[in-house]
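Notes to self after the call with IL:
- keep both proteins in one doc
- input above output, always
- annotate only the second one for now

Protein 1:
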Amino acid sequence: MSLERITIDPAICHGKPCVRGLRYPVEMILELLSAGMSVDEILSDYEDLEREDILAVLAYAARLSQTKRVQPFAA
C-alpha cells in the first residue's frame, strides 16, 4: 500500500487529499467505510477505484492519526 496513491492538487477538490488525482477525496472514502460499506461495495460503486486505493486511504488516515496530543471533542 503506497501513500503515493494519495495526491494533493489545488486544482482538484480544493486541494483536499484525493485518490490518484481523481475526484475522490480521502474523507469521502473514509465516510463510506465508517458508514458500513465494505471495500467490495465501494469498488463496485466506483469502478475506477482499486483495492490498493482503499488501502492507501486507510494508511493515510492512520498516518494522520499519529499525533502527539489529541484534544477531546466538546460535547
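Protein 2 (the one to annotate):
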Amino acid sequence: MRLFILCCLFLWSVPANAQEIAGVMVQETLKNDDGTVMHLNGAGIRSKFFFDIYIAELYMEHPSNVAGEVINGGGRKRITMQFLYDEVGKDKLIEGWNEGFTGNTSAAEIATLQARINQFNSMFVDVKKGDLIVLDFVPDQGTFVTIAKQEKGVIPGKDFNDALLRIWLGDKPVDKGLKEKMLSYNK
C-alpha cells in the first residue's frame, strides 16, 4: 500500500507537459514574455567519446520534423544546452562552434558571418555541470545568448541563426543521433 501511495505521489508531482532526459525535466511547451508559445521540437543528449556532454532541446513557434523547414522557417526558435559533464572549457566550446560552422556552412557564408561568429565566440566562458546555455532567436532582433543565467548579448541576423542551427541539423551535424532526436516532433 505504501508503495502504491508513493507511486501516486510521484506521478502527481511530475508535470503532465514534461519528459525526463538524464534526470532533467524537459518541458513540452514554453511561453515567452510576449505570450508566444514555443513547442518542443525535440531533445536529446550530446555524447562524445562515451561521455554525456549536454542535453540539447529545440523549441519552435512552428515545429517541424524536417531539418530544412526548421532552419529556414520563421518564428521564434530556442536551443537550450543543459550541461551534464563536469566542466567544458571555453576553448573547447569555441572549437566546437567553429567546427560546426565550417562543417555546415559554405566558405562564402562563413566570410559574411565571420565578424558575428567572432562576437558569438567572445561571449563564452567555461561551463560546469548544471549550467544552461540558451540561444533564443527572435525574428527581426537576432539570437540572444544567455549563459548560466547571464545575458551575454545579441547576434543580429537570421542568417547567423540559420548557420547556428545547422551545427545540430545540417549535413554534418555535431551528433547524428542528436539530430534525429531534435527533429522528433510529432504533428
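Annotation: The CA atoms of residues 53 and 89 lie 12 Å apart. The chain has six helices and eleven strands.
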